[in-house]
Amino acid sequence: QVQLVESGGGLVQPGGSLRLVCTGSGRSFRNYGMAWFRQGPGKEREFVAVSRGTGTKHYANSVKGRFSISRDGAKSTLYLEMNNLKIEDTAVYYCAAGQPILSAIDDPRMWRQWGQGTQVTVSW
Predict the structure, then answer these.
(1) Mean pLDDT for the chain?
(2) What would you report as the CA-atom Rg of the chain, rounded to the nearest whole angstrom?
(3) With a cut of 70, which residues of the chain have pLDDT below it?
């Protein structure tokens, strides 16, 4: 059974940092893309960052320069280093795995596997 499990969320003040972890199991993710999406209160799920099976990485404009995505050597664990967090980064963060084409990486409908999500709250 394929599973993605996120951890690392929490409460942080604006300007702070958090590191999210997504652990995959049940199959090899070596040739799969793995991505982070988020869903804020009353908002649709939106793309944050992706690490493709090819090794390339892409980011949403809203997080460029602040967030960094990475994977371990076996490519089954995904990380999201979040720095200089803003109140508008508050959301449930989800890990996803799949093989969407490049033009569709920011479409949540194109991703096959999802984790349960981890809450990130940025607040004073």
Answers:
(1) 95
(2) 13
(3) 73
